[in-house]
């Protein structure tokens, strides 16, 4: 159980804190492993974090950030980042459970929520599974890293009906009956 966990809405006045947080360490399983402080400040000014972006705090300390986007769609997505020193403590699972409940609970038009990660991000893949998300896609060599190496990526989703019932509906991947 994580104590004193809080999701607090990001305020654009906290641009410097967000830039320091994101530029302060590498993000090994994200499209850009390193983030430049100036780029974050520019994105804040452009409204990139205006959808719904939340600090993940433990005891008042910033431990991560979650950004919910494409909120007008039936299938919103999210970006989740947990600082290195807070990884492996259940924050990812808590954040995905929180955002899933938030999106289905407060956005009646949302039918499904999607997330994508690299195939080798075992921790995030476990989080998806433990939170009721199902692997729906496997994209071969679709995720280049900073060195140019291409990784496979995998897509997960949860549908509203599964969230409501607690059941897991698995897609039929053996439907190659098409002529």
From TrEMBL:
Residues covered by the N-acetyltransferase domain: 5-161
Gene3D superfamilies, sorted: 3.40.630.30
Entries under InterPro entries matching the protein: Acyl_CoA_acyltransferase (IPR016181), GNAT_dom (IPR000182), Ribosomal_N-acetyltransferase (IPR051908)
Pfam families: Acetyltransf_1 (PF00583)
PANTHER family per record: N-ACETYLTRANSFERASE DOMAIN-CONTAINING PROTEIN, RIBOSOMAL-PROTEIN-SERINE ACETYLTRANSFERASE
Protein name per its UniProtKB record: GNAT family N-acetyltransferase
Organism name: Lentzea miocenica
């Amino acid at each position: 159980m994580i104590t004193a966990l809080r999701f607090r809405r990001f305020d654009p006045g906290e641009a410097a804190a967000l830039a320091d947080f994101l530029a302060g360490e590498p993000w090994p399983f994200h499209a850009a492993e390193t983030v430049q402080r100036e780029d974050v400040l520019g994105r804040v000014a452009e409204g990139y974090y205006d959808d719904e972006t939340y600090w993940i705090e433990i005891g008042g300390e910033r431990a991560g950030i979650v950004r919910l986007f494409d909120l007008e769609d039936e299938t919103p997505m999210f970006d989740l980042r947990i600082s290195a020193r807070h990884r492996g403590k259940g924050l990812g699972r808590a954040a995905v459970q929180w955002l899933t409940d938030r999106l289905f609970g407060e956005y009646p038009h949302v039918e499904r929520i999607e997330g994508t990660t690299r195939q080798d991000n075992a921790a995030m893949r476990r989080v998806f599974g433990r939170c009721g998300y199902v692997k729906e896609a496997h994209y071969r060599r679709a995720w280049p890293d900073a060195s140019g190496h291409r990784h496979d990526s995998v897509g997960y989703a949860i549908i509203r009906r599964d969230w409501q019932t607690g059941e897991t509906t698995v897609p039929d991947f053996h439907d190659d009956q098409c002529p």
